[in-house]
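Q: I have 194 residues here and want to know how they pack in 3D. Can you give me a structure?
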Amino acid sequence: MNDISDLRVGFSAMTEGEAEDYKIISKSFKAYAKGLPERVLDHLKLLKGDFGGFPVDRLEHSLQTATRAHRDGQDEEYVVAALLHDIGDTLGSFNHADIGAAMLKPFVSERLHWILEKHGIFQGYYFFHHIGLDRDMREQFRGHEYFEDCAYFCEAFDQAAFDASYVSAPLSFFEPMVQRVMASPKQSIYVIEP
């Protein structure tokens, strides 16, 4: 029997597909989806060596943020969100928070998704006023049920995670957590489960 990666459907437009074609596609999707955590971790490693003017590189910032969340007693899903909160820096320099939030949306709670999506604006409280922006931009979300959660994430973990002397857990410590959190989506627009 052929390896799943060798199977191909014969249509040239999706409207030509039959149920058997979509069984092949579904089987291939499931096999590919199992590798998502590894691909995400590989992408996270691209942050290594990119300091962006900060005292630590973006990978260390991510490790520090996650380590601080873990040491604070946050659950595994939260720690993984903390680890991956800035993963969008490489592809979305102007909207990195949106990328991380979109990537993790199927795997995290609505609360964590909101924190990830808004953390860029909330983080601005600590520096926007130094670059000519309104540090209180986050106030547009005052009254939202997750406002304080996002403010806490930024204050306790994100803004504090630029300490060159801080001893972070290594990426290997977090890898099993990423594997577990991303093993199966909590929500998806697709019916297909990995």
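Q: Anything worth noting?
A: The longest helix spans residues 19-33. DSSP finds eight helices and no strands in the chain.
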